[in-house]
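Posting here for the record, re: (2S)-2-hydroxypentanedioic acid.
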Amino acid sequence: MIYDDEKQHDRSLDARTNEAVKELTSLLGESRLLLDQSSFERFGVDRSPGWTARPCAIALPENTLEVQSIVQIARRHSLGIVPSGGRTGLCGGAVAAAGELVVALDRMNRVMDVDPADRSVTVQAGMITAQLQTLAAEKGWFYPVDFASSGSSQIGGNIATNAGGIRVIRYGMTRAQISGIVAVDGRGEILGLNRGLAKNNTGPDFRHLFVGSEGIFGIITEATVQLLPAPGPSKVMLFALQGFPAILRLLSEFSNSLEINAFEFLSHNALERVTARLAASSPVAPAPFYALVEFEPATEADEERAVSIFEQGLERGEIVDAVLAGSEAQARAIWRLRESISETLSPWKPWKNDISVRVGRLGAFIERASALVAEGDDELELVWYGHIGDGNIHLNILKPDRLSAEEFAERCSPVAKGFAMLLQEFGGSVSAEHGIGLLKRDYLKYSRSEAEISALRAIKGIFDPDGIMNPGKLLPGP
Ligand code: S2G
Ligand code: ZN
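Prediction output follows.
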């Protein structure tokens, strides 16, 4: 049974749905099987703009066995399921717009185990990312994955979308932190994947299939997370730079001589909008671009090295200005300028290009991308920012007030298509960290081959033979 995701079935009137709702209510009780419109609006969407929530019901399970029973009931009644975590996604991956059952993990936020022997914790999927960071810190450990929405995103959703964020350059994406996953697949089978083992060579590791699967194979219910020793003190610098060549040279000099935790960049119009919104002032002189570098100096000499990189760049005329945060508070204030970009831009309902190429190809790619933009629509304002240290650029196109959402999408799609073709040429990704969801399905073919996509369909057919898991997401239409 494949949903025709173009049609908006109103499944709430469908007999099968009513039967399923009855069984789900007796399983969960009325307080955990929600049918009211405000719950639909709260649980039936994510942060991507322009979708209308049309679930048939919201289920709030408390453990893996309940999730298994929910999947069995949904399967019996051919009811689509949308797994829902923190609903911070940006590509419609957690949108229920076609009468699906939303399975929200919000009630599943318990710590199941803490194991000092291998410095790991096992938590339910609904644990908020920031809670996990705090739990790690309380034990003197460290959970390194961090991004602007970590205060509301859930670890299950972070795994399902392989969330990245600001520290990927040193610690990798969510994938690198996960040593075990419990999931219920579309057959209703409970899968215990890798079980937290550091070494397990018993064939292909399905844990890695579920990371980044965006709910199309099943629902992640628990995760075993490998934590790190707490890092040493770090330093934060903000550089004002003349252009991309200066940014890339700075990246190369830092990454070849210092332990970098983060290397971010932003364009001048990003900083201007953020400082206006926060009523804050920039700690550096104005310039076309800025780079935020966080590094962990092992010695005094490391800090001196960072300062000399600045001085040499200043002499070459590539660096306009820089500041080395003199306190924790100043470091946080500099980070706030970077982390506030997304929220600052949201009133303009931006078209978000979240793209990546290998770092060594960034220079050539940016040249071609900038030319593409220059040929484009000069009414559309572009804001460049992101994790350039990982080769990941967030290129947001702001919607002019006078354009409707449809007109804006029409004007953006040539640019988005141009980027997708350019990324294909550069072997890059049309979605570096935000995932595919509903929004980017048509661009998948520019980063995944037909052979891969057909294999992905076949694998989905194994874990989800009836196509009830997050129907219409990630995979382009048949
Ligand atoms: C960032 C946050 C999501 C967005 O700020 O790095 O990934 O809105 C983004 O682009
Ligand atoms: Zn990002």
